[in-house]
Design goal:
Elements: E1 3-6, H1 14-23, E2 27-32, E3 43-46, H2 56-59, E4 64-67, H3 77-94, E5 99-105, H4 115-127, E6 134-139, E7 142-143, H5 148-159, E8 163-166, E9 172-173, E10 176-177, H6 178-188, E11 198-200, E12 207-208, H7 209-221, E13 227-230, H8 235-245, H9 250-257, H10 271-274, H11 282-298
Parallel strand pairs: 1-2, 1-4, 2-3, 4-5, 5-6, 6-11, 7-10, 8-13
Antiparallel strand pairs: 9-12
Length: 301
């Protein structure tokens, strides 16, 4: 039985991935800074990617490490993420890990990536810098309860009867349901044919951010919302507006918004051959996210 370490096990994707891996028969360690407070599935182990000295113990005897850590709530997130990825790659190599699986971001490598997406690419490179093969899944917006991009969409639609949005809101993206992200991540763990490869993952819909807001409004409110596009809202102004209307902080909002002017769509469908299955539509993903949000509220999460 292969042993898999999941970093960020208490996060948006990690808390769904751990049980999915257990169902597939893996021995799963859930890495967290506070294992004594961990009450979900998997074996809790102490570790912090920002503390290189804490990584040897959780990585001992691990075959595959899944890396799900990002620092968007910090102004210096690029430096912090780079240092953490470099340290994790070194520790994984020293422990004999055979594969690192990383959830990165979509976008063309043409020099016009935002700082957020550029950082995701840098993390890909640094994780594998010590020789451990890295399997990268590159995604755009992940739609699921608790995800920052989805919560921002949900709260905007719920709280505003109409919206004024920047011109970048007409940029195309390819959202993907959380369930499909988990399915793809679990599907590449331990697969030697996926070592050293980057796969693009997305749902079947290519939508602008305006389209996403409208479809979400139809599902949540039963009607569309009036939306006017204007050319003058900068990312900084937009982030302040979002932090006022939603509970997403301005720093995180600005780092996300910086990426929204970049078109991020799937151009390579190789993942479908490795992990077959039809991904959910955006509307289906929205409905699932709302159902899970309701269940979390019922349980006080």
């Amino acid at each position: 039985m292969s042993t898999v370490l999941v970093t960020g096990a208490t996060g948006f994707v990690g808390r769904h991935l751990v049980p999915a891996l257990l169902e597939r028969g893996f021995d799963v360690r859930a890495m967290t800074r506070r294992p004594e407070e961990y009450d979900a599935s998997g074996e809790p182990v102490a570790g912090d990617v920002s503390d290189a000295g804490s990584l040897a113990a959780p990585l001992e005897g691990v075959d595959v490490a899944v890396y799900l850590v990002h620092s968007l709530d910090e102004d210096d997130f690029e430096q912090r993420d780079a240092e953490a990825a470099r340290a994790f790659g070194l520790a994984a190599a020293a422990s004999g890990v055979r594969q690192i699986v990383y959830l990165g971001g979509l976008g063309k490598d043409d020099g016009r990536l935002s700082p957020h997406l550029r950082s995701r690419r840098e993390v890909e490179r640094l994780l594998g810098g010590s020789g451990v093969p890295v399997t990268v899944l590159r995604a755009a917006i992940v739609v699921g309860a608790g995800g920052i991009s989805w919560e921002m969409t949900r709260q905007l639609v719920k709280n505003l009867p109409a919206m004024v949005v920047p011109r970048w809101a007409e940029t195309r993206t390819q959202p993907i349901a959380l369930a499909d992200v988990v399915r793809y991540l679990a599907g590449v763990v331990g697969r030697e044919e996926a070592y050293g490869r980057a796969y693009e993952i997305g749902g079947p819909d290519q939508l602008s951010y305006v389209d996403m807001l409208q479809q979400a409004a139809e599902v949540i409110n039963g009607r569309r919302v009036p939306i006017v596009t204007v050319p003058v809202l900068t990312p900084r102004l937009s982030s302040y507006w979002i932090s006022f209307v939603t509970d997403v902080d301005a720093t995180t909002g600005r780092n996300l918004i910086d990426s929204m002017g970049t078109e991020v769509i799937v151009t390579d469908h190789a993942i479908r051959d490795l992990v077959p299955g039809e991904p959910l539509t955006y509307a289906e993903a929205v409905r699932l996210a709302l159902e899970e949000s309701g269940q979390q509220e019922e349980h006080g999460e």
